[in-house]
Amino acid sequence: MSGFFDAFTGANLGYLMGGLGITIGVSVISIILSLIFGSIVGVVLFERFPFFSSFVGTLNNIVRNLPLLLIIFFTYFALPQFGFHLPIFWSTVVAMSVFQSAMLAEIVRGGLEAVDVGQFEGARANGLTNMQTMIHIVLPQAYKKMIPPIISQMISLVKDTSLASGIVLAELTYRGQIVYAQNTNFIVPVLIFMTVVYFLLNYGLSLVAKWFDSRLA
Amino acid sequence: MSMIEFKDVQKYYGDFHALHDINLSIDAGETVVLIGPSGSGKSTLIRTINGLEEIEEGQLLVDGFDLHDPKTDMNKIRKNVGMVFQHFNLYNNKSVLENIMLAPRLVLKRDEAENKKIALELLDQVGLADKANNMPSALSGGQKQRVAIARSLAMKPKAILFDEPTSALDPEMIGDVLDVMRDIAKDSEMTLLVVTHEMSFAKAVADRVIFMADGRILEDSSTEVFFENPTEPRAKKFLSQVAHH
Amino acid sequence: MSMIEFKNVQKYYGDFHALHDVNLKIDQGETVVLIGPSGSGKSTLIRTVNGLEEIEDGQLLVDGFDLHDPKTDMNKIRKNVGMVFQHFNLYNNKTALENIMLAPRLVLGREEGENKRIAMELLEKVGLADKANNMPSALSGGQKQRIAIARSLAMKPKALLFDEPTSALDPEMIGDVLDVMRDIAKDSSMTLLVVTHEMGFAKAVADRVIFMADGRILEDNSTAAFFDNPTEPRAKKFLSQVERH
């Protein structure tokens, strides 16, 4: 196995870690944006506003049923035709955020529907407005239950950033391919390296989930 | 002045005619008990009063407000008409004290110190001052219901609706909750409408008894008249079935 | 010959000591009522008798079988010891008639013609012959419970355990179910163990009353002795709370 670590010269390692930085950057920004928009859409779906909610629901369904790769291609190749020119990094962020918001919206809607209707009725009977009921009573209880599926979705997001290598986003997977293109002996070590890095990233996320769970239980 | 007034009210769930020709007038300060077999529409009727259920036809006036008018702000009605539920419906993510203080704070904008004082007094009144900082999950059913009653009282309502308040409680806890309700009923300004199966409570405390079956009001009498000499055959049958064991 | 015998039985849920030093002997043909506040262990105790709960210490003999012995085949016990649950537990995907016929067919290998005849007789006995082909969802709580009783009787058991059989029923239906239970109790060869809050039923039908609290049996007396003169202070307190309203 003497050649195993040959792939990891200072330059290569530095290059790979730069890729990891991009992966983390895209992931963190997309997670934040999708949590915000996903929650808003989820509440809109739950409230069933006449016309508006069905319209939003239809859009949401369309997005959820598309391959993420297609959405990524769309933001990078098609949007410029409509006048929106985004660099690769931001195209990726937009695509991931749109897709993940749609997935999260369903989780949020489901979480809200799982809150016992008695909580709503008790609050309304007590005189609280709908908004006050959501903010003080329902959303806190719903989010507590939604932590596991939300974290799952976040983990998917982190893994899916590798799809952006398809539009030449120089994140970890892309850079891994560049490195092992230098020498066929590098393929296995680099793939193992990437496996370990993705695993640690996502395992870290699941530990965050467990911590949240224990704090809120 | 009537507090609650139904005029020829009809309610439907899809095709199902849940409430038929409801005519009912309850004055401020009355304590009225609503009884009848399950499926008779008692819960549906009481839930139309604070808008948890809608009516399709007829007129429903509560505290002067017309519930059928889309311009009516339900929140104004709910400030003055509280409700106690069969399954308590306490806010599971808030302590007992917070459960009582939340609505007065958000809706009535009560001063914080005043709010806390009133809340603790009410907890004392229902015998649970020592549970102020507990979460609902740590309380028994009877305790939860007494907190729920305190929570409704904190809004200083003109009327309180009780939807089978003791039906979900273990028997040994029912007495304590009924005691709290008895005290409230003694307040001559408070209007109470109680859906219940507890006949001795009705006899002891109610001014009036309303018997429902199949979505209609079949009898509406003073308490003595109802229990001594019910006119409706279905009411007689129901009383004998409930007193049976 | 004792039908059910507990000797120094202990039961734990993790660290929680749910049943303490339970010593109890029930003979064939006895009708025994088990009462006490919620959380006293009554349901836990009755559920150990047919193995729905396990015991950790002590000896439990049912119909001669030792429940703590890993070699004991629970199915042999359950053929002879039936159970009626608070929430009925009917098979939701089967008609009333099928509910009654299923176990005799699969477990006893009863011949189909005989099976149907016995099932119809039992339906007749509980007053529900016309509901034979209905699904449980079409029945009221009281009707479901009577089917559940017929289902247990179809196995021709030596003993029947009732775990709060009327606690989930609307009051006007309780009487009909208690009537069915009264009839069964009259059968002198059948052993009944009933967890209930229905004191009127207990007084009328039970041979013996057992009072439990905090996982222990505090009093075990004949019915007359128990209701006329309970010795345990907790039993006295419980009776007063339950009979209060």
TrEMBL record, chain A:
Subcellular location: Cell membrane
Pfam family of the protein (one): BPD_transp_1
Annotated ranges, domain ABC transmembrane type-1: 20-209
Membrane topology designation: Multi-pass membrane protein
Main location (coarse class): membrane
Transmembrane regions listed in the UniProt entry: 20-46, 66-90, 186-205
Gene Ontology CC, one term: ATP-binding cassette (ABC) transporter complex
Keywords: Cell membrane, Membrane, Transmembrane, Transmembrane helix, Transport
GO biological process, one term: amino acid transport
InterPro entries, A to Z: AA_ABC_transptr_permease_3TM, ArtM/GltK/GlnP/TcyL/YhdX-like, MetI-like, MetI-like_sf
GO molecular function annotations of the record: transmembrane transporter activity
Family: Belongs to the binding-protein-dependent transport system permease family.
Name of the protein in question: Amino acid ABC transporter permease
UniProtKB/TrEMBL annotation, chain B:
Residue ranges of every copy of the ABC transporter domain listed in the record: 4-239
Protein name: Amino acid ABC transporter ATP-binding protein
GO molecular function: ABC-type amino acid transporter activity; ATP binding; ATP hydrolysis activity
PROSITE patterns: ABC_TRANSPORTER_1, ABC_TRANSPORTER_2
Pfam families noted in UniProt: ABC_tran
UniProt KW Transport keyword: yes
Keywords of this entry: ATP-binding, Nucleotide-binding, Transport
Originating species: Fructobacillus ficulneus
Similarity section: Belongs to the ABC transporter superfamily.
InterPro entries: AAA+_ATPase, ABC_ATPase_HisP-typ, ABC_transporter-like_ATP-bd, ABC_transporter-like_CS, MetN_ABC_transporter-like, P-loop_NTPase
Keyword Magnesium: no
Automatic annotation (TrEMBL), chain C:
UniProtKB keywords: ATP-binding, Nucleotide-binding, Transport
Segment forming the signal sequence: none
Domain of life (superkingdom): Bacteria
Domain ABC transporter, residue spans: 4-239
Keyword hit for Secreted: no
Transmembrane helix listed as a keyword: no
Matching Pfam families: ABC_tran
InterPro entries xrefs: AAA+_ATPase, ABC_ATPase_HisP-typ, ABC_transporter-like_ATP-bd, ABC_transporter-like_CS, MetN_ABC_transporter-like, P-loop_NTPase
CDD domains linked to this entry: ABC_HisP_GlnQ
One GO MF term: ATP binding
Family per similarity comment: Belongs to the ABC transporter superfamily.
Name assigned to this protein: Glutamine ABC transporter ATP-binding protein
